[in-house]
Amino acid sequence: MTAMLELRGVTRVYGTGENAVRAVDGVDLRILRGEFVALLGPSGCGKTTLLLMAGLLDAPTRGEVWIAGRRAEGGDKARDFRRNTIGFVFQKPNLIPFLTAEENVCLGMRINDVSRAQARVRSLELLDYLGVAARAGNYPSQLSGGEQQRIAIARALANRPALILADEPTAALDSARGRRVFEQFKRVASELGTAIICVTHDHRSLDLVDRVLEMSDGQLIPASAPVRP
Ligand SMILES: Nc1ncnc2c1ncn2[C@@H]1O[C@H](COP(=O)(O)OP(=O)(O)OP(=O)(O)O)[C@@H](O)[C@H]1O
Ligand SMILES: [Mg+2]
């Protein structure tokens, strides 16, 4: 089965000489279509660095990143490829304050040359899918933190990505709202086939993921086998 994400010997060293920090150290990883994976580990162990490389936002010092069966390249090509293939969700929803929920979701599609009418239809579909259709016309300041994060997930899904990378998306939410975000991811992975990596410190929602990865000092600790083959 094709891996949606494959890392081969991925290493990232920040700085040089005495100041060099080996933030990610020879990571091999395969994430399959529809797999929802949690990434845990102490502060500074390299989780965000790993996600940035998986998301083609940073290039490894060594090693290869493969996404949906294609070796990732640098430069402009990476930017277009990233836009079409990868969705990001961060700790803060980072919605644009002067755009409504629906317009926030539309924005990424408009950049991708989707027509205004089509983007609107898709945006409303996604907001409905995430249970926030009633909020489509509201501005971010009129939404709860959990609602804003669901809009951010809708935005991440807009271009039908093969892969979603989420960096502590529930850190600013209470546990019930955080769990809802995990439930949404689980549903997205199983219904849409999206591969999802979610960095989290929240152990209470781990029953919802297919696999837990643990990182320490830039390396993945061999741990739990995938629940699904
Ligand atoms: N741009 C950078 N330049 C230099 N060092 C960096 C840079 N970004 C991260 N580091 C270092 O790389 C290591 C891994 O950082 P990273 O942000 O990936 O950790 P993390 O696991 O995401 O931590 P947290 O849970 O606190 O978010 C840390 O030692 C950090 O100080
Ligand atoms: Mg981090």
TrEMBL record:
One of its GO terms (cellular component) is plasma membrane. The keyword ATP-binding applies. It comes from the Bacteria. Keywords: ATP-binding, Nucleotide-binding, Transport. PANTHER family: ABC TRANSPORTER ABCH.1, IMPORT ATP-BINDING PROTEIN. Belongs to the ABC transporter superfamily. Macrolide exporter (TC 3.A.1.122) family. This is ABC transporter ATP-binding protein. It comes from Mesoterricola silvestris.
